Amino acid sequence: MRSIPSLSLAHLERALESRAPQLLHLEADPDFDALRDDPRCGDLVRRIGFPALLQ
User: Fold this and answer.
1) Burial of 38 per CB tally in 10 Å (0-12, 13-18, 19+)
2) Where are the domains of the chain?
3) What is the DSSP letter of 38?
């Protein structure tokens, strides 16, 4: 069974592929706080074109 972060990131990957405008809130939305320490989230943020998340 996949973990919650893995499922969440898989959904975000699909959102990126479809260019979902909701991804613009990824850095500020507190619902994504738990994912920000995951390196896969950092990679996703980079591919979206955001500067690196502040630590």
Assistant:
1) middle
2) 4-48
3) S
Residue 16 and residue 23 in contact, taking contact as beta carbons nearer than 8 Å: yes
Give the pLDDT mean for 31-47: 90
Q: How far apart are CA 39 and CA 3, in angstroms?
A: 15
Instruction: Look up residue 1 and give its two tokens.
Output: 């069974």
Calculated CA dihedral for residues 39, 34, 45, 23, nearest 10 degrees:
150
Does pTM top 0.85 for this prediction? no
The whole-angstrom separation of Cα 17 and Cα 2 is: 21
Q: Distance between CA 42 and CA 1 in Å, rounded?
A: 23
